[in-house]
Amino acid sequence: xxxxxxxxxxxxxxxxxxxxxxxxxxxxxxxxxxxxxxxxxxxxxxxxxxxxxxxxxxxxxxxxxxxxxxxxxxxxxxxxxxxxxxxxxxxxxxxxxxxxxxxxxxxxxxxxxxxxxxxxxxxxxxxxxxxxxxxxxxxxxxxxxxxxxxxxxxxxxxxxxxxxxxxxxxxxxxxxxxxxxxxxxxxxxxxxxxxxxxxxxxxxxxxxxxxxxxxxxxxxxxxxxxxxxxxxxxxxxxxxxxxxxxxxxxxxxxxxxxxxxxxxxxxxxxxxxxxxxxxxxxxxxxxxxxxxxxxxxxxxxxxxxxxxxxxxxxxxxxxxxxxxxxxxxxxxxxxxxxxxxxxxxxxxxxxxxxxxxxxxxxxxxxxxxxxxxxxxxxxxxxxxxxxxxxxxxxxxxxxxxxxxxxxx
Length: 408
Ligand code: ASP
What we know:
The protein has helices at residues 3-27, 35-62, 69-99, 114-117, 123-128, 135-140, 144-158, 162-187, 190-204, 207-217, 219-244, 248-264, 267-280, 285-298, 301-317, 324-340, 347-358, 366-407. By secondary structure, it is mainly α. Helix 3 (69-99) runs parallel beside helix 15. The protein starts with a helix and ends with a helix. Aspartic acid binds next to helix 17 and helix 18.
């Protein structure tokens, strides 16, 4: 798409998002009538995820040329993602200790919702989720991590079998290009889709007045999470500027993906658009095809920050003092719980059980956060997608630099 068309589309998407908030706010439940349009858009995005990441990861690994380079690219990616997630948790912990949002909050009557109680996740589940014996079942559930792992190995194997491997890689290369084209077509409908998604969700929450009442009840908690997310957003921007030479223009380049993340509350559903934006922004193609899909499934800075704040908030509300040791445990477990969270709406709420259990806090505390979680979910998803985008820019740049040094 030409640059001018991109700009027009971006403004249209932003207008759709603002109109969605305004209509949802003013007309409340009546806006649920447009929710189906949002569903259609979401389904169109989900429809392309599988073929896109299969083609992207396989052809991306294939384009490395030498399978040994995978170690370098993979190592840099995991290191970058782990470091930025840890920084996010740290920002959350510092802020929550300063603001103390849970102080004096009423805990009486808060309950753990049944659907969350039935689905307790553990660390072994995270490891288990890497390999799925049934790829078709994983694909049907849009369980992306085992699929990515398989494609990674498959792509690596293709680079070792000579000419015939190259032919197969070419096929996936073509498939990738075709899927990117499809994403562009779907993106044209994004202004309406995002309008409907946001208006429908605000409508479901009962409109502006009901939403404000919910926020007010746990206002300091909401303010702490949002404050932390804003700080982390700028930390990432600084990292992108320093390591990849990309500043605010990169925020603009990725804006369509960021607004979509806010509209859908899902990093995975946003992934096709994130890849398209990064591709258009000229990010190293290997990073677009490998770092972004991996990021959408394991890198969740916003979720990690939110989990740390939420768990500390629960501790404060129940009057339980957590010292250095307790908070160190939160630091470690929140990082891991965010890695384990799927890129779907409100997955972080479920993996938070890991953190709460680690520091022996009452699981019912989750009930305190429930009403506002859908909104914070959208904000943290936006930061998650921003973290992935910065990761791709930085890893792409560093890989390119390393190659130049090697060939010099
Ligand atoms: N909705 C988030 C995402 O898709 C995950 C979460 O924090 O619940 O990135």
